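Hi all, posting the design record for the shared folder.

TITLE: backbone redesign
STEP: 1 of 1
STRUCTURE INPUT:
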């Protein structure tokens, strides 16, 4: 009996997930067993303080804040970095409970998935993840799913090429990742500066045109003179960033040509091949060097097709993002057909499978050198329900 047949015939999500895990193992992904209790700091640092309200937290005798793992990507990555394989190509699969407050839904639920570390053939690895994710949904009886993809590296490349103030760069990228309405944020940046004076007018004037390093130095000096290291719980770096943002915004509006280019970029969506053509046209019209990021997208599409994925049935959108700061490139979600319309931002509907590339995570977790990383998570509960409905409808 194949893994797919075993999954389809299994009763209950745990049995289905076990069969799925077996199929991952047959693909060369070694099962990982990270601890349930994890340091809370990596989740708060990498996913943002907003996740705190969803965590189940405790403190050990030394005062370290711990949590029940809310997902498995970070725990698997931490174990990999602590192993002898750190820095070398390695692939892991996993299956286990995760814990997260979800309103009226159960706070403990099963998660399966794959994490691939150290592969330099990024486009091929990205395509492999999407292909394996589609195999996972097919194993649960879902052959026809909605595939949504994006690439935050394209947006980052655009913002870098526009040569905006560092504050604008950080703010736009942060808002893109956090699913804040980017269109509203961009419009806000086009407005004239806030009216009137305030008690920090002198500091804002001193910071005009400064970069982050200069702003941090000035604020550090000022707070040292005042004999304090934080104000209202904010660190020196956070205060410096806030002052720099206010100073930059006070200096003028976002340039109109930059705004128009960003809006045109974010409107690109649909067939991936057509998106590549539109992106190249935009880069040429705006005289921006986006070739490397677009070439990576085009290469990934080619590898996807080579793996049997009908790319014309996927939906690519330049504005698609999963809302986690550690994603650096390819991102995707698989949804049951008819579950939502358009992009998934803010609609509250959980995907069946979701993942992407997060090359920056390893250094954030302590690696001395960058390590390529890509993976995905399978939401067993959602897949089991959707698979059961699908099979019931077909019977």
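Okay, here is what came back for every position:
SEQUENCE:
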């Amino acid at each position: 009996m194949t893994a797919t047949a075993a999954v389809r015939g299994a009763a209950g999500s745990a049995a289905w997930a076990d069969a799925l895990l077996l199929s991952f193992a047959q693909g060369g992904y070694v099962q990982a067993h990270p601890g349930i209790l994890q340091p809370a700091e990596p989740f708060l640092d990498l996913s943002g303080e907003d996740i705190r309200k969803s965590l189940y937290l405790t403190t050990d005798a030394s005062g370290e804040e711990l949590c029940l793992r809310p997902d498995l990507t970070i725990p698997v990555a931490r174990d990999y970095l602590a192993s002898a394989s750190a820095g070398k190509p390695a692939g892991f699969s996993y299956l286990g409970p995760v814990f997260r407050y979800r309103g009226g839904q159960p706070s403990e639920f099963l998660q399966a998935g794959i994490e691939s570390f150290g592969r330099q053939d990024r486009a091929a690895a990205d395509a492999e993840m999407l292909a394996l994710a589609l195999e996972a949904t097919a194993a649960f009886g879902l052959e026809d799913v909605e595939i949504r993809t994006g690439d935050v590296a394209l947006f980052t490349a655009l913002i870098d090429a526009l040569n905006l103030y560092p504050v604008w760069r950080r703010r736009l990228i942060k808002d893109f990742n956090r699913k804040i309405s980017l269109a509203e944020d961009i419009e806000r940046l086009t407005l004239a500066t806030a009216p009137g004076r305030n008690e920090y007018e002198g500091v804002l004037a001193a910071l005009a045109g400064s970069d982050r390093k200069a702003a941090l130095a000035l604020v550090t000096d000022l707070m040292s003179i005042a004999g304090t290291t934080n104000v209202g719980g904010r660190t020196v770096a956070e205060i410096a960033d806030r002052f720099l943002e206010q100073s930059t915004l006070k200096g003028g509006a976002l340039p109109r040509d930059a705004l128009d280019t960003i809006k045109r970029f974010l409107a690109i969506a649909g067939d991936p091949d057509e998106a590549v053509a539109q992106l190249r046209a935009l880069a040429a019209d705006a005289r921006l060097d986006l070739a490397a990021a677009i070439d990576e997208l085009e290469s990934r599409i080619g590898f996807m097709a080579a793996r049997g994925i009908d790319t014309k049935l996927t939906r690519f959108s330049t504005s698609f993002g999963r809302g986690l700061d550690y994603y650096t490139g390819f991102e995707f979600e698989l949804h049951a057909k008819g579950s939502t319309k358009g992009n998934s931002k803010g609609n509250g509907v959980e995907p069946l499978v979701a993942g992407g590339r997060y090359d920056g995570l390893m250094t954030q977790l302590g690696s001395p050198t960058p390590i390529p990383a890509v993976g995905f998570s399978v939401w067993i509960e959602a897949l089991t329900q959707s698979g059961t409905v699908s099979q019931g409808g077909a019977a």
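COMMENT: The chain has 16 helices and 14 strands.
Let me know if anyone wants the other runs.
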